[in-house]
Amino acid sequence: MSDAQRDIIDRAIANEGKVSRVDYEQSWMNFRSCIMNRGWTDPKPTAYGGFYAVPSMNEEGMSKTQDEKLVNDLNFCSISENTNTDQLYRTQESNPELSTDSDQLLVNCLIQKKVAPTSYTKEQFSKDWSSGSAPAFFSSAEAQECFTLYQYGVANTQDADSYWKPLG
């Protein structure tokens, strides 16, 4: 963990365990800087509902060596700069009850955002998720908010032009 992320965690401890919005934003800026300092383009995070995620990637033209380096750099920068801060902030803002049933939390969000019918269940979500042919509503901005919030990696294929191109 970097000194910057450790400082954010220390401030959260002093603030009754709460990560401030400013520190959450800073941790993502630190992550972006780390990636760019390793020779990649700026991975402008996707933002839905006030939460960030690493954008979907277009790895076209990358060699196997470049791809492996990218994976290593993403892991290093995430762990060093924002994983702990991001997890704490998401939890305090979206799961204060500390539920461990992430599928149910996601389904609740989809229903609350009115993109899934109230009859939509965790079992139906699991079936949709593993089928390879997701329902159309998975691509809606509201659904993307839920996926980002609960860290499900669903690319909004309707917005493929916004994919991050690490090589530029």
Can you characterise this structure?
The chain has one domain. The protein has helices spanning 3-14, 21-37, 64-94, 102-112, 122-131, 141-149; strands at residues 46-48, 51-53. α1 (3-14) runs parallel beside α3 and α2 packs antiparallel against α3. The two termini are 28 Å apart. The chain contains six helices and two strands. β1 and β2 form a beta hairpin. A two-stranded antiparallel sheet has the order 1-2.
Our estimate of the beta-strand percent is under 5%
Q: Whole-Å distance between the termini? A: 28 Å
List low-confidence stretches: none
Helix content: 40-55%
Order of helical and strand elements: HHEEHHHH
DSSP, total strands: 2
What is the SS-derived class? Answer: mainly alpha
**Tally of distinct domains:** 1
Task: Output the number of helix runs.
Answer: 6
